[in-house]
Amino acid sequence: TDPMSIRRRVEAMEALLEGMFVIPGTNRRVGLDSLVGLIPVVGDIATAAMGAWIVWEGRNLGMSKWQLTRMAANVGFDTALGAIPLLGDAFDFFFKSNTRNLK
């Protein structure tokens, strides 16, 4: 319930989803969102659920409905486009919905 504890949990989840590994030679970070998203349907649902958890924690912090709606839209957009085979995987590499939601 402590705001700092919630912030640390959200930062840890964002790091896991978006920046867990560095692609050698590119200095580009990827995480579970990009890697698990390679598994059709199941991967996209799993990463959407983890992204929705960040929105839930934002609600627990008392964020406004507008902010929560924007955060949910980021997750929804990422999930919808990420579900497209190949194109969605490339999209996940560039669009970091969880990083946007952390900000």
Low-confidence stretches: none
Secondary-structure-derived class: mainly alpha
Shape: globular
> Could you give the distance between the termini?
20 Å
Largest sheet: 2 strands, antiparallel
Percentage beta strand: 5-15%
Fraction of helical residues: 55-70%
Average predicted local confidence, pLDDT: 88
Gyration radius, in Å:
13 Å
Strand/helix succession: HEEHHHHH
Assembly state? single chain
Tell how many strands the DSSP assignment holds: 2
SS element count, helices: 6
What topology, given as strand order, has the largest sheet?
A: 1-2
If you had to describe this structure to a student in words, what would you say it looks like?
This protein is mostly helical. The chain is built from six helices and two strands, in the order αββααααα. It has helices spanning 3-18, 32-36, 42-60, 65-82, 87-94, 97-102; strands at residues 21-23, 28-30. Strands 1-2 form a two-stranded antiparallel ribbon. β1 and β2 form a beta hairpin. α1 runs antiparallel to α3 (42-60). The longest helix is centred in the middle third of the chain and has 19 residues, at 42-60. The chain is globular, with a radius of gyration of 13 Å. The model has no long low-confidence stretch (mean pLDDT 88).
